[in-house]
Amino acid sequence: MKYKIPHLIYAGLLLISIAITALTFIIEDLSWSTVVASVGAGGIASVVVAWLLDYRKTKIQAIENKARHEELMRQFIRIYRRLMSRVASECYGLCDKDEKHSFQFWIQLLSSKVDFLPKEGQHSIENRCTCILSSVESLKRQIEIFQSQSATLIYQDFPDLEQSLQFFELLQFHCWGTIKQLEIGNYKVFIDTTYILYLDFINEFPQYKDDLPDEYSINEAVQLLNAHGSHPKNKNEPSKR
């Protein structure tokens, strides 16, 4: 709930204080004139100070709220970056590790190889999809965190909160459907719907598109995952075709 500075109230109080001060010009008694001048001047000073303090407090609160909102959204960005890196790293053996491609390319590459990859073992399509699953589950949990904070976000004036809640509710449903596709062994649909999770977020929040890489390599993806401790060492060491 956005707090608005009561400018009209402050302006009214300031005018009243000025009017009281102006009475000194028509009061002939020096003693009363001094008293009225003191009251008027004190009122003017009090109103001006209160007005400035309220303005400063509101600006500081707005800055703090914006920082909280950005950090909340950064959590989603981090998850999507891990998801993008995870998908590329699971394309090891499908192209050169130093080739840079877009997330769409990596998704389509893995999807096109579903029927040609082993059905069992470390390099199987099931194992590759299971590794990607961790990022989808992280996204689902982050959405639940966002939803649980909705009451607090109202008072922090989160932009378009109702619209964002509706979007994340739909995205959560898509996450659930994506996870179910893997559970029933529909690997191609699982991979394709994972890309839809990315597209949905970017279409809803285009201002964060620049925070996600346009192109990156398998080697860069593996390094990022290892740096965050979310990728077992040498598990998916990419190899050239």
How would you describe this structure to a colleague?
This protein has 241 residues and is an all-alpha fold. The protein has helices at 7-22, 30-89, 103-112, 125-148, 150-155, 161-183, 187-204, 218-227. It is rod-shaped, with a radius of gyration of 29 Å. The two termini are 57 Å apart.
Give the low-confidence spans.
Answer: 231-241
Radius of gyration, in angstroms, nearest whole number: 29 Å
Helix share, percent: 55-70%
Count of extended strands:
0
The major pleated sheet works out as: none
Q: What would the average pLDDT be, to the nearest integer?
A: 86
| 3D shape | rod-shaped
What class would the helix/strand composition place it in? Answer: mainly alpha
Secondary-structure element series: HHHHHHHH
The number of helices is 8
Portion in beta strands: under 5%
Distance, first to last CA: 57 Å
List its salient traits.
8 helices; 241 residues; mainly alpha; 69% helix
Quick structural summary:
With 241 residues, the protein is mainly alpha-helical.
How do the strands and helices of this protein lay out in sequence?
Elements: H1 7-22, H2 30-89, H3 103-112, H4 125-148, H5 150-155, H6 161-183, H7 187-204, H8 218-227
Helix pairs in contact: 1-2, 2-4, 2-8, 3-7, 4-6, 4-7, 6-7
